[in-house]
Structures are given as structure tokens and as C-alpha cells.
Design goal:
By secondary structure, this protein is an alpha+beta fold. The chain has helices spanning about 1-40, 60, 65-70, 335-340, 355-375, 375-390, 395-420, 425-440, 445-465, 495-515, 515-535, 540-560, 610-625, and strands spanning about 45, 50-55, 80, 95-100, 100-105, 115-120, 135, 145-150, 155, 170, 180-185, 195-200, 205-215, 225-230, 245-250, 255-260, 265-280, 285-290, 295-305, 310-315, 320-330, 485-490, 495.
Amino acid sequence: MDQKRAIVAVVLIFVVLFGFNYWQSQQRQKVAAEQAGMEASGDVVVSPTGSPSPVVDREARGSTTSDTDAAEAGHPEDVTVTLDSMEGTTPERTITIDAPLWVATLSSRGGSIKSWQLKEYRLRLDPEDHAAPQVSLVSEGSRALALSVDYGPTTLPVDDWMFESDSPAYVDLMDGRETVVVRYSARGPDGIAVVREYTFRADSYAFDARVDVSGLRDPSGRRSLWIGWPGVTPTEAKEDGKAPASVVRVDGGIAKDGLGRFKERVEYPRVGVIEWVTTQSRYFMAAVAPVGVTCSETRAIGDKEARSVGFRAAVPIEGEGTSVMFRVFAGPQDYREVSATGVGLERAIDMGWSLTRPLSVLLLKALVWGHEYIPNYGLVIILISVVTKLLFYRLTHKSFTEMKRMQDVQPKLNALKDQYADNKEGLAKAQMELYKKEKVNPLGSCLPMILQMPVFIALFQVLRTTIELRGAPFMLWMTDLSQPDTIAAIAGFPIHVLPLLMGLGMLVQQKFTTSDPSQAGVAKMMPILFTVLFYNFAAGLVIYWLVNTILSIGQQYYIHRGPAAAVGVSPPDAAAPEGVPESGPASVTALPAFEATETVDETRRTPQSSNTSRSKRGRRRRRKKK
């Protein structure tokens, strides 16, 4: 009955997981169709990343901070009065910076960044589009590093001021120049002045942005400089729904506001000592970190339609003005590039739990180092799988050996179960005596596997999230190790070969690990369950697990069929420990080892002379066989 229930449970899990995968694929098609319809109707502006953005009437909006925003952000007492915009009729002037890694467009409106495109990465919203546009970290109609100044009861809409600059309209960093400085300046009402200065480097995704504010002469109890970045929109056809987020380093810890949090509110504030704040998708991020000072507040801004989470961060202003240098990063979540910013921004990259994070970082470095010598990440993953197998060979060998011993002892355990069918206490003690005699540890096959789990978890996290695998081909139909290896589709359902091969390998492996008939049914269902779980995983991760399974099969075959098969378990006809009757009802008191430890039920005691004679006959049979 228990076996039937277990089989039914596994089947139900399989049906649920299969149905969920099918439902997800249908939902993705539905969302794509809806986006295409909205684009055709003209209700939205489609950004370079392919995600819809609502059309914003900047004239009607007028301010970066409204009364409603302040109330939602947890400041209902702040009543903001917005000063008039300095937009006027001055035409917008742009400056383009062309660098080897990126190309940026700066705008005189607010002195902000209008476009930031990455040259080495392209969108993958449509797998069939081989001429997809470059990844852009600023969506159409938005501007990055937009400023506003809270000044007592007023908010200066610096984002709408028209700035002046002496820089040319086009700056080429492809001709060997290492850096370029772009300076903007503007003067607002009452003599308030704002100066913005950017320092770009040709070989880096990081740059410096300095902001000077002066002329705040009127006394005020609230003064702060706000700077922000709109959300980084998804770049993948199958973007993880948990990936869009704003990550903050606050009060020494890491806080994350994911897109799923924005169900009822648009903004979520965080107050404290804030060292940096990011907006990120699965593979890309934009981050701002003040240098020499800290932010006092940040607000995560969710956009469900664009599937992104942006941010605004505030630096306090004391006196009549302030001068703040910001370290900005806008690029891929490449661990080496992000670490080079020198502000601890690498903590924003999702490398798993804090306990396994050091292992994840070590494995990521090993993956990148291996690729320097083997220019195929698929082969590097196979090599890592072999190396980890060798490192844990002794542990897995002990685990498989103990598993083999348990299989050999299984007939004796079954005999004890029949013998002590009505005496659970006696069965437990007889089993322990049998384990002691045969030198078998029931937990010996589990402990080595538990010790390896941190490494498996770290590898899972690295192979699931590392941008190095994005678009990296392996061989044949496996053209992208960060995506499932789809070879074809039947009635819209994708066929992934690697998970099927992995399930087949696990099915073969079960023949070496299961000998108890009562567990055979459940054991055969486990490969199916794992196939469903891994079916939509990245090909790189499935390759690792497939190779690990193949190597485990070889190791277990050696233990079961090779010279290591003799593991020292006594012959099966010695069905019970010495002193235990071979058949018939018996009490645990028949075991000499337990005679002095338990109260004996005299009505069920087997005569001692009979026990002694049977014991002697058993020893004579064993001596003859030897």
C-alpha cells in the first residue's frame, strides 16, 4: 500500500510539473502576442529591448516627485511644491560617446544619459532574429542619472533644465584615447547652479559622474540630491521572473526589491547608510555608488509593463550646496568587470546563499580560467565535472560501497523483518546487531553525499546565472549553453535532448542503487521526476549533471562488477546474527548480547539448549564453507 501511494504521489508531481511547464510556454506566447498588439495600436512605445513602455507626457508630469509619490514612499508629511521647468524653447542637443565596449548618448535636457548601448551583447527576445539590436540599459523615452533637488518645501526639477556644454557632438574613443570628460552647467531660479561632469574610460563599463549644487541660501530643514536610473528591461526570451530587481547595500547588509513585490505600490523606500544601489535584469545591471559619502534613502520603482525595477537614491545636502562624486557601472554582470569598480558592487551579483557564495566565486573563476585555455565552455564544464568527480572520488566511493553492502545485507534484513513481524523493538535491536556484525553503517551512503551538496549547489548557481555562458555554443544543435538545448518542437512543445539523456542515465544508475523490491517502483520514478525538473534548465547545467551521472555509473559498475565487488559481507545463508533463531517466533532475549539489558517475557522465551544447538550447527556450516 505504501509503495502504491508513493508511486501515485510521484506521478502527480510529474503531471503538475509537466503542466506547469506547458502553462509557462503558453503564457510566454500570450504575453508576446499582447505586446505585439499594443505596439501595433500605438498605445505604447517599444524600447530597443523590445519591452513596452508607457508613453509619458513630460509636460503634464512636470515634476520628478509628486504629492502622491511622497505619500506612497512613506513620507505623507512632506508636501512638495515643484518649481517651474526651465525647459523653454531651447532645442535639445545631444553628445555621442563612441567607446569600444559601449556607445552613449548624452542630452542637454537635464545633462542626463539618453541612451547606453552595449556593443558586445545583443537582445535575444526572438531566438530566430540573428540581427537583433544591441542591448540598451536605458529604455526608449527614459533618461539615466536624472537629477532632482529637494530644497525645503520645493523640488527643483533639474531633470528638465536645459544644460550647456562645450563638448563636440561626437567623441570617438575608438582612436586610442583613454578618457574623455564631458561637462554640463545650468543656472536655475534664485541663483541656484548645477554642474555635471562625466569622466568616461575607453576600456571600462564604469565611469565617474560628479554633481555640484550651489546657491541654496534659504534656510531649510530638508535638503537632498536625488539621482536615479530607470529599470533595466529584460533581454532574454525566457527571462527569469525573479531577475528584475533593485539591490541595495544598506547598513552593511544586502537588500533586494524584486518585481514581484510591486503589486499594490509603485515605490518602496529604504532608509539607512546606503553604499550603493542597482537596477538589474538576469545578466545586466546599472549601479550608482557615491564616493566618500553615503546615501540616506533609496526608492525602488517597479514597472510591471516593462518588467523592470528602477531606483532613485538621495544624498543629504548640508549648507548652501554640495559636491558629490558617483561611481557608476552600466554593463554586464561580469564578476571581473563589476569587482573592478572597487566599491564592493560584486555583492549585487546573485551567487547563491552566503554559505556557498565563496565556493560559487571560486568555481566561476575556475570556469573563466579554463576558458582561457579551452575556448569552448561546454568542454570546460565537462572538465569541471571530471575534476570534481576526482576530488570527491574517495567520498563517493565510500558512499557507493556502503550502498553495495546494504544491498548485500538486504536479504538478511528481510529475513529479520519476517522473523520479528510482531516485535518492532526486537527487530530494531536485531538489525543493529546485524549491522555491527557485518560492519555496515546505514548512514554511510548518505554522509558523503551530504558533504558534497555545497559544491553541487554552488555549481548549480554559477552555471544558472553566469553571463559567460550567455550565447556560448557547444556543438551540433547546442548553440547556447545558457538556454535549454531545443532540437525541434512538436505541436509547439520544445524537445530538449540533454534532459532526456540525463533521465536515461539516471534510470541505468538506479539498477546499481536499488535492490529492495519494495522501493523499486519509487526508484524508477525518480529519473522521470528529475527529467521534468531539469527539462527547462540551461544546457550548461544539464551537461554537468549528465557527465556526473555517466561517471557515477562507471564508478558503481566498478564497485559491483569489478575487483572492488568483494566488500566483505558474510554469505547470505547466515540470515541472522549468531544466537538468533533462523526461523520461528522469537524474542529479542534470544540474543546473548541483549540478555542482560531487557526484561524477559518468559512465556515467549526459546529454550536455551535449543538456541545453543542451533548456534553450534550454524558455526559448523560456516567452518565447512570456509
